[in-house]
Amino acid sequence: MSDSLVIRDSTNIDVPHIQAIYHYHVLHGTASFEIEPPSVDQMRDRRDDVLAKGLPYLVAELDGDIVGYAYATLYRPRPAYRFTCEDSVYVKQGCHKKGIGSKLLAALVERCTEGGWRQMIAVIGDASVASIAVHKSQGFEIAGEFKSVGYKFDAWRVTTLMQRELGDGDRTPPFSD
To answer: Which long-range contacts (CB under 8 A, 24 or more apart) does 17-22 make?
Structure first.
């Protein structure tokens, strides 16, 4: 499987596939705290916003099928946070436990490091054991937890915060603005 898996930049043609993956996770999972799945146009707008900020938006393609996607967003909008990004990784239902999430996250870490970001944050919905394991495999450490911050499927949900440094992290000043 890993020989035929390709991680690449997403294109506009991929957006309906990305939306379908996310649609499932919104309706059936707690990785996202959204309640209503966004439309294809809304997902396209979100992707365009990520790309406009110079951040990567990747897909995993297996035998011509989009089986996952990952992207980074700015962690927070204030200027002091401009060297910190947040990751999101989603894998198509039925394609889990095949290393797709790890490969997407590794590629995302590499691209964000090359882009000059110094820290990457993961906000993991509902303390997902699988997501935490994928992030640990890519060098993330648990930084904390917010209890009962989301309410979905008639239950309070927790978010686990994880973090890893990119490149020189905080050992050197960031690139000049």
So the answer is: 17/59, 17/65, 17/66, 18/43, 18/47, 18/59, 18/66, 18/69, 19/43, 21/66, 21/68, 21/69, 21/90, 21/91, 21/92, 21/93, 22/90
With the C-alpha atoms ordered 100, 23, 72, 158, is the resulting torsion angle positive or negative? negative
**What is the value of pTM for the model shown?**
0.95
Residue 124 and residue 117 in contact, taking contact as beta carbons nearer than 8 Å: no
21-65 pLDDT tens trace:
999 999 999 999 999 999 999 999 999 999 999 999 999 999 999
CA distance 88 to 110: 14
Residue appearing with tokens 């809304």:
42
Q: What is the 3-state secondary structure (H, E, C) of 62-106?
A: ECCEEEEEEEEEECCCCHHHCCEEEEEEEECCCCCCCCHHHHHHH
CA dihedral 106, 110, 112, 117 (to 10 degrees): 110
